[in-house]
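Module 6 notes. Inverse folding takes a fixed backbone as the condition and produces residue identities as the prediction. Think of it as a translation problem where the source language is geometry and the target language is the twenty amino acids. Below is one complete input and output pair. Work through it position by position during the lab.
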């Protein structure tokens, strides 16, 4: 199982991202083409799990809709899943688009979605500059503990890291591409399976 070391920082408000391990090991599991540059970093402090995505995107797709769910589902986005165990009963999804819209939900395997669940403690900042976008967030460790994702005395937990990479086709439709850190080796696109998770280890 893939592992990602989450190094410690002393400042949650101005984290030293140079101290974070750089994760660029992303792929299109269900397409035969290289993934565009996708960088992920994470740090932890006494109070928070901090994370940052930096993405190259030459064709940014931002969906419309009446609410955050509709907007995010139709948009380029980055995603983090968190789970107390690989049984995924339950697990939690945070899907975040470059505008700062968030689709958050709880679920149980397989795809039994609770769309009413909210991660009210998530703090998020986003930025779009040319063909790049950044999504930077903070999630209290107390939230991870309350969800049993970070269990008493533990220094590691299960997490999945993903990207939805959409692009406009000549006929006006949108191609939906799916990028993952862990290739689940499945026949059809699906992040909502245990095989897409790795382990985040809090170090330092």
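Target side of the pair, the amino acids:
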């Amino acid at each position: 199982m893939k592992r990602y070391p989450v190094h410690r920082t002393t400042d949650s408000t101005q984290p030293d991202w140079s101290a974070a391990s750089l994760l660029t090991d992303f792929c299109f599991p269900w397409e035969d083409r290289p993934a565009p540059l996708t960088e992920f970093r994470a740090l932890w402090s006494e109070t928070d799990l901090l994370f940052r995505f930096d993405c190259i995107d030459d064709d940014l797709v931002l969906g419309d809709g009446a609410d955050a769910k509709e907007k995010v589902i139709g948009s380029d986005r980055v995603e983090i899943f968190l789970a107390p165990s690989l049984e995924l009963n339950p697990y939690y999804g945070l899907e975040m688009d470059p505008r700062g819209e968030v689709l958050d939900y709880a679920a149980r395997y397989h795809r039994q979605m609770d769309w009413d669940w909210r991660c009210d403690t998530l703090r998020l900042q986003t930025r779009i500059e040319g063909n790049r976008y950044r999504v930077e967030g903070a999630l209290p460790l107390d939230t991870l503990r309350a969800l049993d994702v970070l269990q008493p005395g533990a220094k590691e937990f299960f997490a999945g890291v993903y990207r939805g990479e959409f692009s406009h086709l000549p006929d006006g439709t949108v191609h939906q591409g799916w990028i993952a850190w862990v290739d689940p080796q499945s026949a059809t696109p699906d992040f909502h399976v245990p095989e897409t998770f790795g382990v985040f280890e809090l170090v330092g």
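Reference fact for the lab report: The radius of gyration is 16 Å.
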